[in-house]
Specification:
- There is one protein chain.
- Helix content is 53%, strand content 14%.
- It contains 20 helices and 20 strands.
- The strands form five sheets. It has a six-stranded mixed β-sheet with strand order 3-2-1-4-5-6, sandwiched between helices. A five-stranded parallel β-sheet has the order 15-16-17-14-18. A four-stranded antiparallel β-sheet has the order 10-9-12-13, with no helix packed on it.
- The radius of gyration is 52 Å and the shape is elongated.
- The termini are far apart.
- The relative contact order is 0.05.
Amino acid sequence: MLPWTVLGLALSLRLARSGAERGPPASAPQGDLLFLLDSSASVSHYEFSRVREFLGRLAALLPLGPGALRASLVHVGSRPHTEFPFGQHSSGSAIQDAIRAAAQRMGDTNTGLALAYAKEQLFAKAAGARPGVPKVLVWVTDGGSSDPVGPPMQELKDLGVTVFVVSTGRGNLLELSAAASAPAEKHLHFVDVDDLHIITQALRGSILDAMWPHQLRASEVTSSGFRLAWPPLLTADSGYYLLELAPSAEPGTARRQQLPGNATGWAWAGLDPDTDYDVALVPESNVRLLRPQHLRVRTLPGHAKEALSLAQMQEQTLQLEHQAKLKEYEAAVEQLKGEQVRVQAEERRKTLSEETRQHQARAQYQDKLSRQRYEDQLKQQQLLNEENLRKQEESVQKQEALRRATVEREMELRHKNEMLRVEAEARARAKAERDNADITREQIRLKAAEQRQTILESIRTAGTVFGEGFQAFVTDWDKVTATVSRRLLSKPQDALEGIVLSPSLEARVRDIAIATRNTRKNRSVYRNILMYGPPGTGKTLFAKKLALHSGMDYAIMTGGDVAPMGRDGVTAMHKVFDWANTSRRGLLLFVDEADAFLRKRATEKISEDLRATLNAFLHRTGQHSSKFMLVLATNQPEQLDWAINDRIGEMVGFELPRREARERLVRLYFDEYVLKPATEGKQRLKLAQFDYGKKCSEIAQLTEGMSGREISQLAVAWQAMAYASEDGVLTEAMMDARVQDAIQQHKQKMQWLKAEGSRPLLPSSQAE
């Protein structure tokens, strides 16, 4: 009967011990383990398979299961993806199979987004996370991330998550050290993807250390007391512990004990048998806030003391027997260890040999893939170049056809408009002659009277001077010779006739005209000229006047004429310069809108045909010539090729007219398009009575920023408004209305230029 009594008391003692703590045993690790796997496109399929195999082996070594460790896997990609959450698999083998079945997600490496997702969806209490258990994050990465990692990683650390980082690439040491938990040498591992097995055991031990339950536990439970133990949470200098004990049925009769910060245990005695006691351990820290720990312990019944002593004696006897067997076992183990060392050395040698062979094979295969990839890229680039060339040729052909159709349509419309204009002018001229007959007669009478007065004055002056000067003139043979020579040799021509420029620019271009004329006479080499500035400032007009003044042949081409020629552009360019070399008078070749043809070859995208034509042009103009002179005009000189700038002898900037030049332009075009037609009487145009000079000055003040062409168009608009009126009379109000329209149109043009991002016009100075 006594053995059965002892056995019953021993079983009750073990049950009492197992019920001393709530949850899993104090010696069992527990917590939540999250694997964060880089599954983006920056990781190759081979690297992903190796990392997946490593995580599977690591999970197989951990005590995963209900009430202990739970595991989850989250992919890092463009968007985070949960492969399996906490609690879905209840065994280590199931988790290992789930990891090996995971597929790569590809996409961007948004690690920061995945960390924020883990905080909200997995580690948060609202998401079902277990409170009071350790939490560990194992982040396997190739070292890079598309978004910031620091802030979301710090938020996880603030929740108490222990972070391990395994880098298989070339990550930044400082960034990854900041991401891992401290100390970094324990929580950060840099290892090649083929050597991950080296850190498996060390990483497993670190994870288990982080997962070990740090909580209050009871031992040595008797009918009158028990012993408490807890992990070191404080030090002697950082605070103290407050320990409270109260019967569960009478919480008001609590016993309290204050212990120093370096204490890790305490024994309660003098307790009632077979009673539940609630224990509370309150760490009072002056460094950080620590949560209290609670425990419920039940003392043994009163008659269990003798059974406990008997059980202890039996336990001591069994321990002595086990110690004897243990020594025998240790000797056998030492012998096995020696054999195991030898076997491991042999296996390591075989493993290194096999790894070397695999590395060589992989290197050869990667080299083969690289060569094949390079050849494929060359073929694709060749096909792309051929396709682009074909598209360019088709585009040039379409543009040429469109240009021809446009030219034909313009010629047809111009012919019709010319016929209508001639007919309208004829009718208007006849009516104007009838309406202005009295004005014409008055002008004839005034001119006749003025001419008669001039002749009389000339006669009187000649009569006075002739008698005194003739004798001296005819007696001095040198004066006679010089007079005759100047009369025979001089050809009064003005290169700036009809052109309005600023005084400084006028003097400069006049010197160019005189130098060009004398260069042709002396058969010397010509200088090439670049004229740049806004449209309508007189560049084209001066080029024509320069050719007429110097007596040279004149040829004009535009930059837009070259591209449609295609492959014929080179031949056409050589023909132009061959023809220039046959000119006896010298050829002035004027290239308008030069930037459309002579663009930069290094930065601008031009076709091969246009590039070849430009090279031919540069070849024929490489040296100064006595046969031809280049005059280039452009609105955008910065787009010209550097070789073109090297061939320019002088650059002349034509700028917008200032107020004085604008007033001269307004008076010039007012006289040409309004005043002369009104006074000659040949057209249907009359002019009302007002101060023309004052009006021209006012208009010059209002047209600031306009070019000479815009001012000439304004004068033509005055003429057209007079023609459109019923009586053909141009009034001051009509002129003001057209001026305001021109100002609004000019502002609209400037807004378009600004919207297109064009460079601003040059500062106003001159105009046509």
